[in-house]
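Now read this:
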Amino acid sequence: MQGSGRFGFVLLMLACLLALIAPANASTLAASEYKMAGDATRMRVVVQFDREPEMRWFLLRGPNRLVIDLPETDLRSDGRDLKGRGLISSVRFGGVGNGRSRLILTAKGPFSVERIDVIANEDAKGFRLIADITASSDREFEQALADQAQTTGSTVSTRKTDRVGQTFDLVKRPFTVVLDPGHGGIDGGAEGINGAVEKEITLAFARELKESLEKAGPFRVFLTRDNDAFLRLDERVRIARQHEADLLISIHADTIRLKGIRGATVYTVSDRASDAEAAALAVRENLSDQLAGIEIEEDNHEVSDILVDLIRRETHSFSIQFARSLIGQLSTSVELINNPHREAGFRVLKAPDVPSVLVELGYLSNEKDEAQLRDPDWRGKAAERIAAAVADFASQKARVGG
């Protein structure tokens, strides 16, 4: 009896352990098979899933692509199946963070989507995604991009109707902006010659910019912090990705040894700094965590596969596009330094999938800049210019299906 009792106890513990493990495994969608068939004029793609996936898709140009977003998915297919053929020049599949995976079909030329849906398998368990594309003209592809931007906010998602199929709902996704007031808490940032503190200036400006953005368009706007709190740099990036931000604006106000230098600067990320001052600023800003007594970990955990590199390049292009638009808007009413668009390796700008800029509103080491940054009227005027740039950028992204 004692032996059988111990055996029963072991079985019970194993059952409990399996029950704990099962939900974690069940959270990942399994794609058991990927197939393509067709020629240079028409292609069909079929992906088999263990259960019904929620799917969104959209088109991109340069090169022409069909992008299909899925929940986190484990693709258990032979890598050779992902080689391009016929109308499709290349296939990429992988995780993009936030519990999502992405399938990218790059075409050899313009195409039209004849069909894309998810249906239940008739004679077996599971569901399959079917995508049919056909070669088209440049004019037809551009029209599809324009229709997509106008009616769907760049994406189309599936909506359940019954057990055997899907229909499509046109879903307009609001353009989302995350504002990041630099520094906070134990990290006060720069100090002005007349006592202004960077962390207070950036928070006050972020709040005013949020109001201006909400007036300028149908935007969702979030702040990484709305009080005097310290946030790690990677936490600021995580917040932007958590909100699925279309744009991250990190707000700062620096000091410099030369008191006569003044004006705003817009930075985008780059491994190679555009100049010595940009490099020095990035070093100072990247030390924020260390100033708060937090050890910086190396970025070895970052995924560096072809898909993430592709997304990162596309994101960087959007970041530069917004930076140029922002400088154009600011130049009408805000003092700018010479060569106002600069680049450096800011850690807070390194989200691979969120276009990001860092705005130095001015120099607290300059008496005029410090006075302006403390002036609510000046801050309101600058916030309106930034809001106008965001509205322009959102419109441009919608037009290109970004």
Remarks:
- The radius of gyration is 25 Å.
